[in-house]
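User: My collaborator sent over this chain with a note saying "see what the structure looks like." That's all I know about it. Can you take a look?
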Amino acid sequence: MNRIRAARSLVLGCALALGIGSVGHAQRAEVDTLVRGENVRLWAEPAPDADLVAILQRGDEILITGDAELPDGSTMPVTAQTLGIAYDVFVPVELVETGETGWISEIFVDPRSFVPISSAGADVSTNIPRGTASVDNANTAAEDSGNAQQANRKNRRQNEKAAASDESAASATDVATTEADASQTKQQKRNKKNAASGDQNDKTANDAGAKRGKNDTAPGALDDPADIGATLRGDGLAVTVGSAEFVTELGSNTPKGGYKFLVVETRIKNVGDKDHTYNASDFSAQDGKTGAGFDSVFVLDDGLLDSGTLSPGEYVTGNVVFEVQETTRQALVKFDPDKLTEEDLFWAAP
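Assistant: Without extra context I'll predict from the sequence alone. Here is the result:
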């Protein structure tokens, strides 16, 4: 929590120093961006106990319509540098597809898709000579500008979808040509794990064999999730879910009625050749039987996974906490290494 507040203060200070605007008095500007994370809640007010407006999903297009609101009620301008820092800072948005409006936690706004598109309240008649014809021309120009912006946004989204579709098609071709080899390799690894385990009643030996057989293998799929303790790779990251357990309380934190906590111990290492960002919101969970989705939640506790950037060779550890239904007996933990692809990693927990 202290690191989050310090980071937020630093970003706000930099914004003021660069002349972005003073808190509470920045010019309101619409910003076109995307949701990151799964089952993101759109609230009627800037608070997690407000009325629920809608559930948003990763990749949903939203417009940021004003300044962010901090826990103390003050406001701050929204920039790409101020996003992805804290759960308790809320941003006013409009869902492009439905027109629904409300507030979401800024940590679920993808800063990489941050595109300012217009300044609301701008006087389109500035420096326009007096007269009816001039005013009509100004209004027409403003309308044409708005239509052009909307067309540009639509074209950009279509290009992104086309690129993603091409990449998926290429991946599907590669998978089809290597499916038999992958299946044989997977069976060989399982056999090696069983041989190394020795005595099936010796839990310690089983665990060691599972790690040797599972670590650094291809990502666990939704229909074949990896075991707890396995290390999976995706987009230059090696991610380990070391443990997972259900608890009814965590320190001074208690879940809402009908729910319990799922606490997951994680480790993320950059095994690529370039810097890579990470965030607790990259993890999500779902009921292994019903498929109901659960987001990570913010609690006051030590050792929680934060957000930041890893250089090649660096790693970070921390816990991620989910609020799941009391009826959940087994959950699937999902890690999304890249919001722009479908390369998701899955573990069966606990």
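A starting point for your reply to your collaborator: Residues 1-29, 118-143, 197-217 have pLDDT under 50 and may be disordered.
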